[in-house]
Design a protein that fits this description.
This protein is α+β, with helices and mostly antiparallel strands and about 325 residues long. The protein has helices spanning about 10-20, 25-35, 35-50, 60-65, 80-90, 115-125, 155-165, 180-190, 200-205, 210-220, 255-260, 285-295; strands at about 55-60, 70-75, 95-100, 105-110, 130-145, 225-230, 240-250, 265-275, 280-285, 305-320, 320-325, 325-330. The strands form two sheets. Strands 2-4-3-10-7-9-8-5 form an eight-stranded antiparallel beta barrel. Strands 1-6 form a two-stranded antiparallel ribbon. The two termini are about 20 Å apart.
Amino acid sequence: MSETSPLDDADLDLVAALQMAPRAPLSALADVLGSSASTVGRRLARLADERLLRVIGQVEWPMLAEGNPMHIWVATVPGQARQVARRLAELPEIPFVATTTGRADVYCSLHATRRTGARELLMHRIPTVPGVRSAHTELVLRASAKSDSWRLRRLGEDQLRALGEVADPLDEPATAAGFSAEELGAVELLRHDGRASAAEVARALGINRSTAYRLTQSLLRRGLVRPRVEIEPALLGYALEVVVELHAAPGAIQQVADALARHPSARYVSIVAGTSSVIHHGVFRDEEGLAAFLTHDLAALPGITACEVSVMLDVLRRYWIGREDGRLVVAD
């Protein structure tokens, strides 16, 4: 990916608006951005055609698998990190893969459909990937922040207020159990296209439009599917991406996780079981921003006893979507 971003200011404004209201009608987005619906539509189509942006549906964990995700750090044979990362990115149970500096050569997350599948991956399939020397795993117990909550901060208060009025309402998250085939079908459609309309859902599932609308709105309101913009942070000016492992006193773990979830860098914050207490996956504009986070923001949080930083060198896969020079791989 070149040093110059292919996105201009109007593109960045559109990304910021979509992050606030991913399913907002083009007319609403145009009103907020001071443009026309046709111009916004063309701009959005161009970003999608150039494989820079895609609106997807982030699905709640229980709808995807039996257990919670895991963080995995993989040490490789010297010179084999890229090859190992590519092999891991081919596994359907691995939604995120990156080469890194720090404690290991490759970082990935694992989300197996069944617990037995997770055991097989951890005990056999991953250790036997050519070039793997060892792997360290941390189990996610609870997420305090997920990627749909990260925002590009460039819109004014009036714009944010207007977008909030057209964003899909969110009730208390529901327990993901006992869903019909139609509901699961709608989830799968929204997972790949977070802006899918009721008409598109109706055609795909062979149901009437009113039923499809109620089905879609129910999934969105209950937070079982959370539409979000999928785009590489580097394209938005956040070239430095890190995973910070934090050790905290037991009584401070939840407080630390909640505070980090509110930090503007937070893309994913989780309480984990392992050698760490909290893991913070964050993005920063540059090294100075990361330095300020480590020396000032973390220092202000009581209870933290140690931290370890892994810097992303190259992200090969994010939320099951492949990456190539910062662009989304369509056939994933």
